[in-house]
Structures are given as C-alpha cells and as structure tokens.
Amino acid sequence: METLFMENLIPFDSKILNKTHLSPNLMEEALEDIFRQFSFYNPSPKQEAFHKAGLEARERLFLGGNRTGKTYAVCMELAMHLTGIYPKDWKGYRFSRPISAISASISLKDTRDILQKKLFVGDIDGQTPPILHESFIVEKTHTNIAGAWDTVLIQHISGRVSELKFKAFQQGESSFQGVRADFVHLDELPNFKVYQEALVRTTSFDSEKTFLVASMWPEKGKDDMVSHFIDHGEEGKVKDGRFYIRISWDENPHMPEEEKQHLRSSLPDWQMDAREHGIPVFGQGKVFVQKEAEFLVEPFFERPKHWAYVYGLDPSATSGGTWGAVLLGYDRDNDIVYVMADYKLSNATPTEHANNLKKIMPSWCTGVIDPAGAGENPHTKEKTIDFLQTKSGLRLTKAIKVNGAKEAAVDEIYERIRAGTFKICWHKNVGCNHLINEWRQYARDDKGLIIKQNDHCIDALFYALAGISSARSEEQRVRELHGYREMMHRPTISGGEWMRF
C-alpha cells in the first residue's frame, strides 16, 4: 500500500500514522480508499483548466450546463485541500497545512443532498462512491435539518485536522460573517450580497492563498453574479485574480448521448443555451433561438472584392460609453448577407473610435449610424456624427427611425436564417466574438418585449441590414466616383442646368 501511495500521490511519511486519531490499520484503509477515488477522477480538459487556474486566481467561476461535472470537480479539489493529499500529477494549488473551508448551496437541504452527499455518501446506486472515506471524519455536529451537518472536522495528512462548515444562501450574508476561510465553495447561483460577504471571509491570514469558488448554471441570465466574471475578462484567462470557464454537455464524457437527446427534446428551446452550454440568457426567453450551426461559418481570410459592403454603427451618447459596429458583406448574386467583422469598445474618445473603425471598415464603405447620432460634444456643441464625417472622414448616413424597426429586423434575420441567406463569420472565439456574445444573451422580458441591455453590436447589425440597399463593392464606388467627377466637369449649359442630367 505505502509503495503504491508513494508512486501516485504526494510523498508520504508512515510516521504520520501515529499522529492521527486513527489506528494505523484504519488510516491505511482510509488512504487506500481515497487513493482509489482520486485515481478514479480523470478531469476533463475544462475541469483541469479550472483547477490549474487556482495557481493564480483567487476567484473562480465554473459556469456550465446541468450535469456537466462542475460541482463534482470543485468537491474533488476541496477534498484534496481538506486532507492534504494530492495526486502526483495535480496541476492546481496545494495547501501545505490543514484548511478552514465553507461549502454552501441554496438551502440547507440542497447543501445536504448535493454537497454533503458528494463528499461523504456518494450516489445511491453506488456508481459514484463518496469522495472522502468516513474514517477521515474526526468529529461532526448536526443542524436542525434531518441528516444535515453543520461542521465537520477532517483528518489531515499532517496529523492535524481541517474544518469544513456547511451553510446555505437562504441563511443570508450574515451567516458568513465572523468566519475566516481558506476555501469557500458556493454551488448554484447565490445572491450577489452573499457572494461579496463570502469573498470577505477569504481574506488571507498567512502566507497561503485563499479561494472563493462558485459552480453554477446561469438560471437568471447575466445577473450581477455572472457579470462580475464575464464582463471582467476573457473566458479561460486569469485577469486581476478572477477566472471563469464554461463547460457543456458534450464536454462531459460521462453523460450518455441518449440522455442528452432526451433532455434536448424535453426542455424549452429558450433554456437550452443556459442548461446545455452554461450560456447566460437575459429575461424570460431568447430572441434568437435558432441553432448556431445553421448560420455560423468560418471567417474569411480575404473579403471577396465583388461583394457589396455596408456597416452599422451604434455610438454612445455619453462620454466613455460603449460603441458597437458590424460590417456586412453582401453576395448579391446569391442574396446572402455575411456578418464579416465587428467592433465594440468602451472608454474611448470619438477620435479613437474613428481611428479604430478605419482599421476594420473599408475606406470607401458607407456606414449607417444610429439616428440619434451619438449626441454632441458638451464643450464645442459639435454633433458627433458631423465630427465623424467632416473631421474623421467616415462615410455615414443616418438610419431611418421607424416604429417597430427592431422587430422587423428580427423577423428579417429569422427569414434569412431559414432560407440560408444570413451568415455570421465566427469559429471558437475567432471572428465576430462581440456580436455572438450579445446574440446569445439577447432576450425578452416577461411581457415579451426585447430587453435593452448589452446590445450595441446587435443594434449596429440592425442599422446595417436597414441600409443593405446602400451596400456597394469597391468597383461600384470607383465607378460612381468617376461618374460624379465627369458630371462635375461638364460645361455649364446655363445657370447650373446640368443638374437636369
């Protein structure tokens, strides 16, 4: 046993057996059991990336569909920290001492039935054994919920003990006060005040790191909790101590294909992105429910020269606000509209936005702008649209404001997707990433009205579609400009009567 343990887990001194509350035989049995369980755990690429992020990130969010293994992954990591036993190939953070931890879900019953069960009971059918052998429990206290535990002391490999407290979001943020923790696991969506209070509890009190980890599916869309992560940085990258990653059904090798198909046929379409892929959706239902495979295409390395182009621009009327833009390529021969590129940026001046747009949009291309024109400079009183046209050299025309234009644009996109004549260039975060993120979250409220939130690229798309008749190829622009110059140099008949022509 000890040889096996030495080869596959952290170096182990057999003298530790004499420091624990267990007899050497029981301790060896417990170690052998946890060795089997840790060996059984073969993390998926997403789970492994989540664990590895613990080397840098203090806050981590595992955002996933239902039954994707996100909760199990966090419970496995927690068990390692509690016991001080790590697989030899463990790529995450390692504590060098016993820890104090908190594990919480929505209610005490949920905490008991999900988290406590995964750690100490396992599945009823026996297919998934408990993560921690019962021999590791030194002491436990109970709550007033039948079978629910309040505090558990766990045997640590050092001979000392770790402490695990079970809590519930429904107890409120005050239940987290007065407690310090090295590791806090919040399973399912917490109130953001609970999250903030839990974060305060992880203030480091020695040289070791502290962690706040959440595992959930985005049942309330892009709320404050989800925005705290996805608006802060790129998925899969650590930024300023924060990290998030999404996992879907297809990335869970233990979920049977027939089970996926059954759930897809039983759950409402508007919930599928959230439940299957962990994609947060606003409101009561998505606006665009079509399968992405129907309209996503690989990005083009070069833009076809014979296509016509037009772009939409949604500038912000407030200083430092977000600007969004999309470029459409129109294959007139086949009546197919392609979204070729997008742009989205906050906290920049109109001059900076204009310079950025010139790098993306063809210089001869016309842009259709929000009819509000992004307001005016509060100091010079110059309208932003006038500045963009006269001083920045952008070709712009105002979109015609018509009641119901937004719903009409949605209908047009629906019809084009069904006909196969609307495509977005995107593949695995390459291409129109800003637009796709908005597309996945674009939703209606409980009254069926489109929610006006995080829609700068979507609005720019609508403006561009409304101006598709203005789309021109580079050759057309050259011919039109040449014809205009010829007309301007014609001899004057009398009093400017050339205008008749």
Automatic annotation (TrEMBL):
Segments forming a coiled coil: none
Signal peptide residue numbers: none
Boundaries of every Terminase large subunit gp17-like C-terminal domain copy: 312-465
UniProt KW keywords: Viral release from host cell
Pfam family, one: Terminase_6C
Name of this protein: Terminase large subunit gp17-like C-terminal domain-containing protein
